[in-house]
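Hi everyone,

Forwarding the result from last night's run.
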Amino acid sequence: MTVRIRKPGDKDLLEFTRLALEYTETQTRSFTNNHQEKLRERKYWAADCIMEETPAHYLRLAEQNGIVYGYVLASMTSSHTGWIEEIFVREWYRHTCVGTKLIQSAIEWMEEQGTSMLYATDKGDTGFLRAHGFEKRDGHYQLKLR
């Protein structure tokens, strides 16, 4: 599977919003009274992510043949610390190296920024984080860079 990791453009807003909503569904497994409100907030969040290009934020999409399968969102909180905020791959494309390519692209970006420590929260498949060198410490996962 040849996957291209790329920056999103304005034309990606709809597809990224769909992915962000799918991610929300996987994280909010129970339907609560405010479920619709959470989804509405998530739509605005997705638009902000696409439109907000700052040196401290990294958003990349995984695409093959014009179809977007996943994304990674990372940010720098200080000159030497970064976070993997979210990483998501559509269910049918998991275990095909899409997630690996996404997280590797974020790690490379963090290293280029001079980040020495990368953190991630436990929001799903912790085996995936461990497979990429993250270790659990103090309630979250961390990866020492360089």
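The CA atoms of residues 17 and 75 lie 19 Å apart.

Cheers,
N.
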